[in-house]
Design a protein that fits this description.
90 residues, alpha+beta, 4 strands, 26% strand
């Protein structure tokens, strides 16, 4: 599920995932930036459902959960949906 270091480097100063969790059935990784600026943080949501794409409502619910639980500093944190229908479900 984790991105390797070279995959994460394209994002800039991000070098490792600090938080890995599952929300509403989707694996999620949060990559906070070392500089503490939320605008540099990135959330990866892995779409493991082969039958449909994750909805905007589910994305918003996931970002709200991450914000409420303190994983991200702002609900406007950038995110990427990663198609990983072949991903091992944990």
């Amino acid at each position: 599920m984790s991105l390797n270091k070279s995959q994460a480097l394209f994002l800039g100063v991000i070098t490792y995932a600090v938080y890995q969790l599952k929300h509403i059935g989707f694996p999620v990784e949060v990559f906070p930036c070392d500089d503490g600026n939320w605008k540099h943080d990135t959330v990866f949501i892995y779409n493991t459902n082969r039958k449909r794409m994750i909805s905007k409502r589910e994305i918003n619910a996931t970002l709200q959960y991450l914000y409420d639980e303190g994983y991200i500093q702002d609900r406007r944190t950038k995110y990427e949906i990663v198609d990983s229908s072949g991903h091992d479900k944990q």
